[in-house]
UniProtKB/TrEMBL annotation, chain A:
InterPro entries: 2-oxoacid/accept_OxRdtase_asu, PFOR_II, Pyruvate:ferred/Flavod_OxRd, Pyrv/ketoisovalerate_OxRed_cat, Pyrv_Fd/Flavodoxin_OxRdtase_N, Pyrv_flavodox_OxRed_cen, THDP-binding, Transketo_C/PFOR_II. Keywords: Oxidoreductase. One of its GO terms (molecular function) is oxidoreductase activity, acting on the aldehyde or oxo group of donors. It comes from Cohnella pontilimi. Residues 475-559 form the Pyruvate:ferredoxin oxidoreductase core domain. GO terms for biological process: response to oxidative stress. Pfam families: PFOR_II, POR, POR_N. Residues 210-445 form the Pyruvate flavodoxin/ferredoxin oxidoreductase pyrimidine binding domain. Residues 14-175 form the Pyruvate/ketoisovalerate oxidoreductase catalytic domain. This is 2-oxoacid:acceptor oxidoreductase subunit alpha.
From TrEMBL, chain B:
It comes from the Bacteria. This is 2-oxoacid:ferredoxin oxidoreductase subunit beta. PANTHER family: 2-OXOGLUTARATE OXIDOREDUCTASE SUBUNIT KORB (PTHR48084:SF4), 2-OXOGLUTARATE OXIDOREDUCTASE SUBUNIT KORB-RELATED (PTHR48084). One of its GO terms (biological process) is cellular respiration. Residues 199-263 form the Pyruvate ferredoxin oxidoreductase beta subunit C-terminal domain. InterPro entries: 2-oxoacid:Fd_oxidoreductase (IPR051457), OFOB (IPR011896), PFO_beta_C (IPR032686), THDP-binding (IPR029061), TPP_enzyme_TPP-bd (IPR011766). Residues 48-195 form the Thiamine pyrophosphate enzyme TPP-binding domain. GO terms for molecular function: iron-sulfur cluster binding; metal ion binding; oxidoreductase activity, acting on the aldehyde or oxo group of donors, iron-sulfur protein as acceptor; thiamine pyrophosphate binding. Its cofactor is [4Fe-4S] cluster; thiamine diphosphate; Mg(2+). Keywords: Iron, Iron-sulfur, Magnesium, Metal-binding, Oxidoreductase, Thiamine pyrophosphate.
Length: 578, 288
């Protein structure tokens, strides 16, 4: 019996690849397996090759796999494009309709199932995905009832007749292939999972959930890949909690609307990807200058310009840190796991209010869209901290005085009142201003106000600003990374450790202000530092060089072809260094 | 109850003497008092321009944001706390050039915000360049040979975008302007009030006298029915947009706040934020 397996389904976009993957993985999740998904898709809605890959394991996994065990193909193109990934002895389940062939040189077993024919016989070719997934499920020897339950949930809304037909399609697919194969394939028999259902979601959903837990009740946003799922999730949920999502005319409206709503006292977020973030830059400066809390999610994708909108990249970091003219206090956090997507939203909203600054949560496409198992999320640990928000009645103001919204304080954070509050009237402006918010060009005031605002940067450290995954004093190589790559590195590290090679690994989560003091000891101890990132210029490596030093120890390990790092690539690179 | 004096602060406007914006400031202060507001119940959100400074000259909550974005900020404020009265304001460049996209969509969205544009047909703050409201042939620093682009008609655009309240007024007519702002505040939905507010320093063509000569007050047409959209469009076209008064009002269409599912009467900012264990578990159940 095996402890893990990779399954992939591919076809033309719009052909049911997504729904098949959904049902298949839901059923696996019910059985208690750990799952990690990867979507290959393009910006087209219909047509164009697309595939979804799921890695199934009895142990926690947080990375895509190097190879593939089972490929379900709706067309020959899927086989041609993906068969190379199959490990020797892998299996292809394909529609007999197109007379599938395995490319030369690839050792794989082919099961040609009359997928379309069976579906059409049952009434509609739309059900071919059910035939196909039934066939591949049966080959794994997994219980069909669990699968049927997932089918029922997917189609329940459409009535019992539809459910019944789909269940029949699954059964026919299963029967056909089992007869062909002479029963389930022994070599693909998975060890039973622990039977406890995990949470199974994409990073964008975890962030939406985190936002609700954080007390976010409004979102203003403009659709973009790979951020849209956040607004789509929140528009389904926020009305239940009195809030809503506004789809704005552009990202400038999205971010300024969020600023207005935060100013008026509701935790409000926006989310976008690179192109949208570029449009938001001026407004981020307004948030910093007026000390208005703001939370923005940037789901990084391939840039520049429209770039590779459906592909993995981590290339916005410079823009997020340095973007907006002038100098403002600002926080950039990059969650590295699905759980962190949830908790970082909570912390992001807290930090935004405690320090009265813009906070950018930067994910990457794989983290935002890769569907994966998630450890239980703990609502009890969620604390909402609104910082120096004044809620008690205020004393009457002296004549012609306003509330000192920008009062000079020890920590640079001033008391904040919300519109509507008696005796709290003050002015808010992006023009340099005095303690009451009145425009001021005085040089003394200017310097003090700049210092007041920038001073807030000194003390900001989010939880696990730098996450230490492995410290072994005997290791010579240290890998430093950010975002979704951590699971891949951990997997490579485990393989290297089997070869007797120890590697250290830290994840930088707080990108700005840079937690140099937390990184320095690790760099100091290492002989070689490999900074691994999905961009072409080594943005994280440069941040380290700029803030910490150790230029001669640092090596770049870059990948910017639109695909995530594979464990084998990291393994190989580290092996060569040792 | 607050009088208009309570909406004054002691900040001296940096506008040129004679600038039309002084009257707009006074009209907002009077209208706010007349409708029975207390200063803390009003939020004035303004853009960037000479006109944009207005939020700093009224004793109320005020936010002076970035160029062209007064409307999305104001809509954010209203979404967050619908118990507040929200006025957005700015110049013709702010609202009809850089912010035009927001203007059209704020009209469509129909949140209960009153938008007051100080339309001086020029860019005042940047010292005299052409605006989308400048007449063809209008000579400015940026159009030394005269503007060769057509003049934008915000009133027509507002009507075609589905506006529920469209009015126009003139700085010299404080009475009409105040009354229209009051109506705008009371209107349940988005209201656009375009105000001819002369720039005495950079616009030597569209002066107070020029407006007095050229505008038509709708009061002259007792039979005019502001609930008729076609008539409104005709009147705007007939008068080349030089009319003042309440041009159009749709009292039937509901505001965004009233249409949004789950939105309560109480301002969101005044509601509780925490999530119960039970609600959280329900949310989690969907991911199993
Ligand atoms: C993004 C941006 N671009 C340009 C400017 C410069 N700017 C400030 S106000 C203004 C135009 C002002 O004209 P208007 O909106 O009509 O206001 P007025 O001064 O006439 O009241 C311009 C171009 C700016 N502040 N921000
Ligand atoms: S420049 Fe024109 S618009 Fe600006 S304050 Fe002076 S008169 Fe008013
Ligand atoms: Mg102007």
């Amino acid at each position: 019996m095996i402890s893990q397996l990779s399954w992939k389904i591919g076809g033309q976009q719009g052909e049911g690849v997504e729904s098949t993957d959904r049902i298949f993985s839901t059923a696996l999740n019910r059985l208690g397996y750990y799952l990690y998904g990867y979507r290959h898709f393009s910006s087209r809605i219909k047509g164009g090759h697309t595939n979804n890959k799921i890695r199934i394991s009895t142990n926690p996994i947080r990375a895509i796999s190097d190879d593939l065990d089972i490929l379900v193909a709706f067309d020959q193109e899927t086989i041609d494009l993906n068969a190379g990934e199959l490990r020797p002895g892998g299996v292809v389940v394909a529609d007999a309709k197109f007379s599938p062939v395995i490319p030369e040189g690839i050792q794989a077993r082919l099961f040609a199932v009359p997928i379309t024919a069976i579906a059409e016989e049952l009434g509609t070719s739309l059900m071919k995905n059910m035939v196909a997934s039934g066939a591949s499920w049966a080959l794994l020897g997994l219980p069909l009832e669990v699968f049927n339950k997932a089918v029922e949930e997917e189609f329940g809304r459409k009535g019992p007749a539809i459910v019944e037909k789909n269940v029949e399609a699954v059964k026919r697919g299963a029967e056909f292939v089992l007869e062909q194969a002479g029963g389930p394939l022994e070599e693909f028999k998975l060890e039973p999972a622990d039977g406890t259902q995990k949470l199974f979601m994409i990073g964008n959903e975890a962030m939406g959930l985190g936002a609700i837990a954080a007390g976010c009740r409004l979102m203003s946003a403009y659709p973009i890949t790979p951020a849209s799922e956040i607004m789509e999730y929140l528009i389904k949920k926020l009305p239940k909690f009195g809030g809503t999502v506004v789809q704005t005319e552009d990202e400038i409206a999205a971010v300024t609307m969020a600023i207005g709503a935060n100013y008026a006292g509701v935790r409000t977020m926006t989310a976008s990807a690179g192109p949208g973030l570029s449009l938001m830059m001026e407004a981020i400066g307004l948030s910093g200058m007026t000390e208005t809390p703001l939370v923005i999610v940037d789901t990084q994708r391939g840039g520049p310009s429209t770039g590779l909108p459906t592909k993995q990249e981590q290339s916005d970091i410079n823009a997020l840190i340095y973007g907006t003219h002038g100098e403002i206090p600002k926080v950039v956090v990059a969650p590295s796991t699905i759980e962190e997507c949830f908790y970082d939203m909570v912390e992001g909203f807290n930090v935004a209010e405690e320090y009265q600054v813009p906070v950018i949560i930067a994910t990457d496409l794989q983290l935002s869209l890769g569907k994966q198992s998630c450890e239980p999320l703990d609502i009890e640990s969620v604390r909402i901290n609104r910082g120096k928000l004044v809620t008690e009645e205020l004393p009457q103001l002296e004549e012609h005085r306003m509330f000192k919204r920008y009062e000079f304080t020890e920590d640079g954070v001033s008391p904040r009142v919300l519109p509507g509050m008696k005796n709290g009237i003050h002015h808010v402006t992006g023009v340099e201003h005095d303690q009451e918010g009145r425009p001021s060009e005085s040089s003394i005031n200017r310097q003090k106000m700049m210092d007041k605002r920038m001073q807030k940067m000194d003390s900001i450290r989010v939880k696990d600003a730098v996450k230490v995954n492995a410290v072994d004093p005997s290791a010579e190589v240290l890998i430093v990374a950010m975002g979704s790559t951590g699971g891949t590195i951990e997997e490579a590290r485990a393989r290297l450790s089997k070869d007797g090679i120890a590697i250290n690994h830290i994840t930088v989560r707080q990108m700005h202000p840079f937690p140099s003091e937390l990184i320095e000891p690790h760099l100091k101890a290492a002989k070689t530092v490999v900074v691994l990132e999905n961009n072409a210029t080594g943005q994280l490596a440069n941040l380290i060089k700029q803030n910490v030093g150790y230029h001669d120890k640092i090596r770049n390990f870059l990948k910017y072809d639109g695909t995530p790092f594979l464990p084998s690539e990291v393994y190989k690179a580290c092996k060569e260094l040792n | 109850m607050a009088t208009f004096k309570e909406f004054r602060n002691n900040i001296k406007p940096n506008w040129c003497p004679g600038c039309g914006d002084f009257s707009v400031q006074a009209a907002i202060q009077r209208a706010a008092a007349n409708v029975g507001l207390e200063p803390e119940q009003l939020a004035v959100i303004s853009g960037i321009g000479c006109s944009g400074r207005i939020s700093g000259y009224i004793n109320a909550y005020g936010l002076h944001g970035i160029h062209g974005r007064a409307l999305p900020i104001a809509q954010g404020v209203k979404l967050a706390n619908r118990e507040l009265t929200v006025i957005a304001s700015g110049g013709d460049g702010d609202g009809f050039a850089i912010g035009m996209g927001h203007t059209v969509h704020a009209i469509r969205r129909n949140l209960d915000v009153t938008y007051i544009v100080m339309d001086n047909q020029i860019y005042g703050l940047t010292k005299g360049q052409t605006s989308p409201r400048s007449a063809e042939g209008f000579k400015t620093k940026s159009t030394p040979e005269g503007s060769i682009e057509s003049t934008l008609s915000p009133l027509e655009i507002a009507l075609s975008a589905g506006a529920t309240f469209v009015a126009q007024s003139f700085s010299s007519d404080l009475k009409q302007l105040t009354a229209l702002i009051e109506e705008g505040i009371k209107h349940k939905g988005f209201s656009l009030i375009n105000v001819f507010s002369p720039c005495v320093t950079f616009n030597k063509v569209n002066t107070y006298d020029w407006f007095k000569e050229n505008i038509v007050n709708l009061e002259q047409f007792p039979e005019y029915d502001p609930s008729n959209r076609v008539a409104a469009m005709n009147k705007i076209m007939e008068t080349h947009g030089m009319l003042t008064g309440l041009i159009y009002q749709d009292k039937v269409r509901k505001s965004y706040e009233d249409l949004a599912v789950g939105f309560k009467e109480q301002g969101l900012a005044n509601q509780k934020l925490d999530l119960s264990r039970e609600d959280f578990d329900k949310l989690l159940a969907e991911f199993k």
